[in-house]
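Re: weekly structure request thread

Next one in the queue (261 aa):
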Amino acid sequence: MSERDPQFLSVGTGDEARQIAYRHEPGTETAERPGVIWLSGFRSDMLGSKALEVARVAREAGNAVTRFDYSGHGESGGKFIDGTISRWLEETLAVFDKCCTGPTVIVGSSMGGWMALLLALARKSSGKVAGLVLIAPAPDFTEDLLWNAFPEEARRAIETKGVYEHPSDYSDEPDVYTRALIEDGRKNLLLGASIDPGCPVRILQGMEDQDVPWEHAMKLVSRLPVSDVTITLVRDGDHRLSRMEDIMNRILPAIAEFGVG
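Done, posted below.
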């Protein structure tokens, strides 16, 4: 399927209905050769360099591969300002249920790492979650990394106007944080208790990450089961870990552990 030709899945009903763009390339889904689903980060999409490289390697090896854009992102419909963790999780579950028919490795970057954990917990009993690869995972970021770190004027803007805009390091358009995003995030917090996704977990984290500090990843590790969880700290790695050396030497070997590529 061409990168210019996504399919669309309708999620939600009535005023909440939105069209979610996705690309699914079928392959073999077995315990030895599982499929893979890519979960992007906040304001990222399925055409980013990491997503494209993971898809290419999986495709060439015969693994099924699925990518999609959250509503308000990339090629999907809906407004970004309407986005919440629960809304984007609903879309994640819908795409997973439609496209991932067998064992699947969930790869999540930044906010996608939070989505990956929520997805794994929600579909733990399905037997389809073969493993998690989390790149600079940001579970609970709306509370721990946003609200708790916001200056007073930002909190005041969210409480009184319902929205706060902040210059983005990655785009000419500002990052937009809404009261709905913050309040809904509190319904999906994970780091206050143990987390057992029922599968092996591999975490990749840059120690020069200015968005998700490496200590945040260590907090996640402390909440995961002791068995079959590893974290790789990249001394000079930034938040994206999108340098070719990061992709080739860290991300691809991590998914290869599970039979992808």
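The beta strands are 7-11, 18-25, 35-39, 65-68, 104-109, 129-135, 163-166, 175-178, 201-206, 229-234. Helices lie at 49-61, 85-99, 111-122, 141-146, 152-161, 179-185, 214-223, 244-256.
Next request, please.
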